[in-house]
Each structure stands twice: as C-alpha cells, then as structure tokens.
C-alpha cells in the first residue's frame, strides 16, 4: 500500500555485517547503524576470532547491537565464541528447530537466515525473533551468504508477513533505496556491498548506505 505524499516511513533498521577492522566499526557507530555483524565462519573472508571481535566491540560501549553470524554451529563453537565476546543477537544458518532450541536455551534473541529463490518459498511463519530473506547461494558457492548475489526483489511485492524480517543479498549504496521501495523491507543487511576489498569496509560506503536506506519512500 502506498503512503500519502509527505508521510515518512518508520525508522528503517540497518545492519552492517562482516566487521573486521577499526575504521569500519567506527563508521558504523558514527553513522548510526542499528546492528553490526561479526562472522564466525572460517570459510568467509570476513571471519573473525572472538578475541578480535571483543577488541573491536570494546571501542564503543554502546551504539549498534552486536550480532554474531554462525553457520550450523555446534554447541562447543557457540560456547567458545560467547565466552570471548558479548553478543546481543545470534544470526544462524540452521534449521528452524535448532534456532528455536538455541534461543530458548541461551536466552538470547536469534535471527534465522532464510534463503529463497521464488515467491513460493517465502516463509509464512517464524519461530525465532527475525528472519533474513536472501537469495539462495550459487551452486559453486563455498558459503551460504556474503556472495554479493542479488535477490529478485519483485517476488516480495505485496508480501507483508506478520513477523520481523530483514532484506539481504547484493545490496549496496547505489541500489538500497530502490530495494526498500520495491520490497517495503523494514530492515536491510549489507556486507560486501560496502567494502573496498574482501573483509575491508569503506567508511564512506557505510555512510552512504545508511543514508540511502533511510530515505523516505513510497511502499508498494
């Protein structure tokens, strides 16, 4: 449904994922990101140790909530990371049942990545605190996300789920405004789209991404 002229959208959440260095972290704080993501997955060029993420996190006591991204983690991996750094949210590639069980056992909010390739695959329910809607990885991919692959935004036209969700996949400062206009996404997630090199964030790109993601627009 389109909004009347002059109306503005509520605050749109922005997550910058894959932080590994000080300049990127500081830019997220300075420009008001809602969440920053630390990737705990060895195959990713954005992989970080609990000790490294803790040092970054301690640069600023408040600011964005800290999200830890895990790919089918076992209990030992989760315990090791959580012993090394305080995380506000867990973002998982896992089954919905595993995600729910971890949320209940650990007492921490859990987001679940939900790769899709067609409108028929869009979820109708959510067992955890939020779903991340993103494209399925290409067949040759070595990791489930962070592949700079863009979702077909048209499949989200008119989709208004009754649970919190976030749009991810192939977003960058140049296309995020169009993405939220077409999808009505209440929150967006970016990683490689604001990098100057794999795993190295561009402070200027972070600034522009956040600004463009939050521009007023007409939802569809």
TrEMBL record:
Residues 14-212 form the N-(5'phosphoribosyl) anthranilate isomerase (PRAI) domain. Pathway: Amino-acid biosynthesis; L-tryptophan biosynthesis; L-tryptophan from chorismate: step 3/5. HAMAP family: PRAI. The keyword Methyltransferase does not apply. It comes from Acetobacter tropicalis. PANTHER family: N-(5'-PHOSPHORIBOSYL)ANTHRANILATE ISOMERASE. InterPro entries: Aldolase_TIM, PRAI_dom, RibuloseP-bd_barrel, TrpF_fam. Its EC number is 5.3.1.24. The keyword Nucleus does not apply. One of its GO terms (biological process) is L-tryptophan biosynthetic process. It catalyses: N-(5-phospho-beta-D-ribosyl)anthranilate = 1-(2-carboxyphenylamino)-1-deoxy-D-ribulose 5-phosphate. This is N-(5'-phosphoribosyl)anthranilate isomerase. One of its GO terms (molecular function) is phosphoribosylanthranilate isomerase activity. Keywords: Amino-acid biosynthesis, Aromatic amino acid biosynthesis, Isomerase, Tryptophan biosynthesis. Belongs to the TrpF family. It comes from the Bacteria. Pfam families: PRAI.
């Amino acid at each position: 449904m389109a909004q009347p002229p002059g109306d503005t959208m509520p605050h749109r959440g922005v997550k910058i994922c894959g932080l590994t260095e000080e300049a990127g972290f500081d830019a997220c704080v300075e420009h008001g990101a809602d969440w920053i993501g630390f990737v705990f997955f060895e195959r990713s060029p954005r992989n970080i140790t609990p000790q490294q993420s803790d040092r970054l996190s301690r640069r600023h006591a408040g600011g964005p909530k800290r999200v830890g991204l895990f790919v089918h983690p076992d209990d030992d991996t989760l315990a090791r990371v959580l012993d090394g750094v305080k995380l506000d949210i867990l973002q998982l590639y896992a089954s919905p049942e595993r995600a729910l069980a971890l949320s209940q056992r650990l007492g921490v909010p859990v987001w679940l990545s939900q790769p899709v390739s067609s409108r028929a695959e869009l979820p109708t329910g959510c067992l955890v605190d939020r779903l991340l809607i993103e494209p399925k990885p290409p067949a040759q991919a070595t990791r489930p996300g962070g592949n700079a692959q863009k979702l077909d935004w048209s499949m989200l036209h008119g989709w208004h789920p009754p649970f919190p969700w976030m749009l991810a996949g192939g977003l960058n400062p140049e296309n995020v405004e169009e993405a939220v206009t077409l999808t009505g996404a209440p929150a967006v997630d970016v990683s490689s789209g604001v990098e100057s090199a794999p795993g190295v964030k561009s402070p200027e790109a972070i600034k522009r991404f956040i600004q463009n993601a939050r521009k007023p627009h007409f939802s569809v």
